Each structure stands twice: as structure tokens, then as C-alpha cells.
């Protein structure tokens, strides 16, 4: 019989076993050798040198590491967050949104949920013990940014919406990238490797899980707007079985932003498992890259801070590499390069480092439904429907219909609108705190509110409904002072060349959301992944292979 198991599935299988053994043994070094360690004392030290190092384990980093591993290039990934595979005292890896504990947030004393209040009461937030939790909210004056922390980055905490951008808009934001190649090859590759699936439309119409989305669709259609299904990396078959009561609830169990215990194809189950399974890739958790040093021979040395899950600094370590890939996300990668330029370590980085940052035009809002339009007590935490009004010539908006997974009837319809906002922020380096500071003022978010309001005023008028003013801690109807979608800071073709090679620093590459100039018009992770796939293919072919060839011939 022919072997039906693809190399990718075999690698994923090996990688998943490695992640499970590392979790069981409490290791911070994860590789296919994890299973042979008896306990933490057998952990290999961080190597002094690795041919390639990838900082971060989010989308761009994971795609990059998989392709490096497949190409046979030994690669170390450094991740400042934890491995999320070990059950806590309650038997679950992650906590839910109704009873958050120390697992929820990254070193906070109190949770900071996006819905700050309900009927103006602070019901969602709870006091917690500071710990290396899975969700971080990073504050910068008028803007705060949500990011995932742990093996899998944003994939651990996000809503799983896996949307390929409209081709005309992709061409507008990244005109120098060959769109035919992206849509013919890299988007399909990214979607397949991420495990993107679609909701069954017939099930959608009859299920309880999306009653809330059907109510919002009715209101949108009444105002003449069209809705579209949103592909996902949450397993819709699992969701259907959750609703039937056959499997433990996750999307139906108020699990989203603090992680999902089941059903979600987060990166640790897809790209990262496959990367580990190549046998060439290893991951170090609770290892934060703090500083980049360029050596006279052209290699890079990283200064790495190792902590434990309680935040105690255990050690400062060093690792050197020939090829350094930054996948620490828009905030993380931008900060590393800004610090390197401003402290004189990489003086040839150009002025574009720290520029071109945007929120993907994010705005959150709620509408109050009529008493007879119940949204249901059971709501899937994973959105599956969006209002697509991106063709509007004045105010393009793509608004996801989001759940309020409170477990009780709220009569609220919630939305995350993605708008086209030309405003951009920039980062400066603050020497006193040794960190990057974002410059973005609240007025820059106004175009996003104008666009969102234009759409939802029509929805409210057509249905005779109003906005909710009780959800964001004060009386605002529109929340645009946080973003889930930080993009930019090291824009493709500006801070880097057309393939993510950093200008002024040979063999240093950017692989993540910081390459995208502030907007994608849809949820960004498919775009980030596809772009990383495209870039690493070129970098391996042009930079790494030719450098290896003479040595292997010798
Ligand atoms: P990212 O996934 O942020 O990964 C960066 C990783 O690097 C993290 O694990 C960090 O802990 C780590 N790191 C940072 N600095 C360092 C350092 N110095 N040393 C070592 N490690 C470091 O990067 N997008 C969608 O497309 N669909 C959705 O439904 C969606 N929902 C979202 C919901 C929430 C609550 C949030 C927060 C985000 C959501 N997003 C969604 C956004 C999406 O997750 C985000 O665009 C990607 O995760 C960004 O990918 P990157 O590769 O840029």
C-alpha cells in the first residue's frame, strides 16, 4: 500500500509529540529531542551559535522557521512567553473570560478586557496574580495594543478569523509585491498550512451558536448591506459537536482572548509543530531577546533575558547567528531595531525604522437590539460572519459580527469594524525606559469612527435601534483606543527591501506584521503568513543556499 501520510503530517505529528513531552517535563527547550530528557535538569543549554535564529513564535516567525527547517538549516526560535500545553489545577490549559486568573494576562494585577463595562459596571475584569499570562495589553498614551504571549504568539488569543484580503486592496497597500504570485501561490499555501476551514452554511442557519450573527445580519440587510462568511482556523466540525454536547466546550465555553482549550488550530498545532518535526528547529520559551549586537565578522549576537513564569530573571544569555529573523510582532520587532539604531549598535538602519504604523482602522461598537431580537445565551466565541461594505467609495468598512459570550442574554450586538484610515503613527526610542514609545493621538482614530458611524447609523435607522453607550468604561459608543491588529513599524520596501531584508544590516530580516503598512482591510494573520512564506522562499534561495554551496563543495 502506498504511504498516504504526507511529509508535513508526519512532521506535525513528531512536533506535537515534542511539544507534549516538553510540557510534561516542564522544559523551556523544545525540540524533537525533548522526549529523551528525563526532567528539566537535562535541558541542553542555549547554544552559543545557531546558523539561524528566529525571534518570536507568531505567524511570520512560524512560517519562516518551518521553511528554514525544511531546508535543513538549524534554527533556534526565542519566545518570551510560555509554552501553553500544561493543564492548571482545574485541568485546563487556559482560563475562560468569565473567571480569568493568572493565566489570562501578561504580568498584570488586574485583567484588562476589551469590553471594559456592561451597564457601566466593571463586570468583566478581575484581580489576578502577576504571571506570564497569555494576553498582553501594551499601553501607549492614547492607544493600547493587544498581543499574544507564548508559543504561537497571537494565534493563542485571537478570534481565528482567517481572511484573505481583497486583491485590489492588497495591490494598493503593497504595490511592489507581485499580486499574481501571492494569490496564485502564497495565499493558498498559507491557508492550507494554517488549516483554514469554512462554516457549513446550512448548519449556520439552524445552529444556536450563531443566533447572534443572524440577528445582526437581519439588521444589516434591512439597511441594504451585504454580509459574507468569514473563514476560520477554528474547527467548525468541533464547534458543531460542542453544540450537540458531545465534546468539551471551548468556543461555546466563553474561551477566546485568554486562549482556547479545544478546537482552535493555533500555530503550535500547525506551522510550529511541523517546524519542530523537521528535527532542525528548536524553541526556547521564557527567553526574551533584548539586544542585537553586530560582530566584526558580520554575525549577530543576541542578549537574551531568561525569566520564569513568575517573572523572576533567571539569567542573561547570549546566542550568535549568521541569519537573524525578527518575528516578534509589530511592537517587538520595531522596538528591537529602533533600540539598535538609537544606541548606535546598528547605525546604518534607515529613518523608516519605527514608521508607518497603523491600527488596521480597528473600531469596536455595540448596538442595542429590540427586546424580541434575542442574541441567545449560547454564542460562539469565534466569529463567522462579517458585514462587507469595503466597496463604499467614501467609507469602506469590513465589520465582523462579534459575540458577547457572557452566558446570558444581553440584547447587544457587538462588532469589530476594520476601516481604511490613512493616519499613521510612529515610534521613538526612550533611553530612560530603554523602550519604544508609540506616537498616536486619539484624533488620528477619528476617520475610523466616521466610517464606522456612517455604516451603523444606517443600520440603526433602518431597524429603529440605538448604540450601546455602556460598554467601554464611559459613555462612548465607539472604542478606537485599542487595537487587535498592530501593523507596520518596519514597512516592506521602506525599512527593508522588497523581501524583508533590513536596509543597512546584511543577513537581518523582518518576517512579521511590522512589514505591513498599517492596514490590510481584513484581519491580518493570513496576509502576514503568506508574505512570510513568499519572503523566506526568496531569502533561502538567494542568501542562504548560495552561501552554503561553496562550503559543502569544499
Ligand atoms: P505575533 O503573533 O504577535 O507574535 C509575536 C511573538 O513574539 C509573540 O509570541 C511574542 O511574545 C514574541 N516576542 C515579542 N517580543 C519578543 C522578544 N523580544 N523576544 C522573544 N519573543 C518576543 O506576531 N488576526 C486575524 O487575522 N484574525 C483574528 O481573528 C484576529 N483576532 C485577534 C484577537 C485578539 C484578541 C488579538 C490580540 C489579535 C487578533 N488578531 C487577529 C491579530 C493577529 O493575532 C496578529 O495580527 C498576529 O498574531 C500578528 O502576527 P505576527 O507574526 O506579527
Bound molecules: flavin-N7 protonated-adenine dinucleotide
Approximately how much helix is present in the residues?
25-40%
User: What is the domain total for the residues?
Assistant: 1
**CATH level 1 class label:** Alpha Beta
CATH superfamily: FAD/NAD(P)-binding domain
Q: Please give the largest β-sheet.
A: 8 strands, mixed
Class of secondary structure makeup: alpha+beta
Strand content: 15-25%
- Per CATH, the architecture is 3-Layer(bba) Sandwich
Instruction: Tally the helices.
Output: 11
**Backbone CA Rg:** 23 Å
Topology:
Blueprint: H1 7-25, E1 29-30, E2 49-55, H2 59-70, E3 75-78, E4 135-140, E5 143-148, H3 167-173, H4 179-194, H5 201-206, H6 211-222, E6 227-229, H7 236-244, H8 271-277, E7 281-284, E8 287-294, E9 300-307, E10 313-326, H9 329-342, E11 355-358, E12 362-368, E13 385-389, E14 397-402, E15 412-419, E16 426-430, E17 435-439, H10 446-463, E18 466-467, E19 478-479, E20 482-483, E21 487-489, E22 508-510, H11 525-553
Parallel strand pairs: 2-3, 2-10, 3-7, 5-20, 10-22
Antiparallel strand pairs: 1-7, 4-5, 6-13, 8-9, 9-10, 11-21, 12-15, 12-18, 12-19, 13-14, 14-15, 16-17
Helix pairs in contact: 1-8, 2-8, 2-11, 4-11, 6-10
Bound molecules: flavin-N7 protonated-adenine dinucleotide.
